[in-house]
Structure formats: C-alpha cells, structure tokens
C-alpha cells in the first residue's frame, strides 16, 4: 500500500513538473497568487491578534465602567 502511494505521489510530482514546464506563464501566475495568499494570511493573523487585544481592552473598560456606575449609584 505504501509503495503504491509512493508511486502515485511520484506521478503527481512529475505531472506538476511537466505542467509547470509546459506553461511557465501559468506557473508564474500560480506562484504570484501563492505569495499574495501568504501575505493575506499574515495580515489576517495580525488582524486576529489585534482584534483579540481590542476585545480584551473592551472587557476591561466595561468592567471599569460598571465599577464606576456602581460607585456612583452608592453615593446617591
């Protein structure tokens, strides 16, 4: 079974190599798209981190606001 998979993987690799050699323009476009996807993935990761930070900051501000409201209501 493993030998069969190795043979299939080898065929797939050869097909990819042949396709790239047969159409270098397409290969270049695919590479460009991969790079753009990588860049967008990095941006998405950074945005996710920033969102997490902002959500945490928002929770802290809500807690502070609630504490201030509670203190204000006790003074009344």
Give a written overview of the molecule.
This protein is an all-alpha fold and 76 residues long. It has a domain at 24-76. The protein contains two helices and no strands. It has helices at 2-22, 24-75. Helix 1 crosses helix 2 (24-75). The longest helix is centred in the middle third of the chain and has 52 residues, at 24-75. The mean pLDDT is 90.
Mean pLDDT comes to 90
SSE-based structural type:
mainly alpha
Strand portion: under 5%
Distance between the termini: 79 Å
The arrangement of helices and strands along the chain is HH
Q: Count every beta strand, where a strand is a DSSP E run of 2 or more residues.
A: 0
Largest sheet: none
- Parts with pLDDT < 50 across at least 5 consecutive residues: none
What fraction, in percent, of the residue positions are helical? over 70%
Our count of helices gives: 2
From the alpha carbons, calculate the radius of gyration and give it in angstroms: 27 Å
Region (Disordered): 1-49
Biased composition (Basic and acidic residues): 13-22, 32-43
Give the structure's gist in a few sentences.
The chain has 76 residues and is an all-alpha fold.
């Amino acid at each position: 079974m493993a030998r069969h998979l190795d043979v299939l993987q080898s065929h797939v690799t050869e097909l990819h190599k042949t396709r790239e050699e047969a159409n270098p323009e397409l290969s270049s476009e695919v590479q460009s798209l991969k790079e753009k996807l990588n860049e967008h993935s990095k941006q998405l990761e950074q945005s996710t981190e920033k969102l997490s930070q902002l959500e945490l900051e928002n929770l802290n501000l809500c807690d502070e606001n609630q504490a201030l409201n509670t203190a204000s209501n006790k003074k009344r």
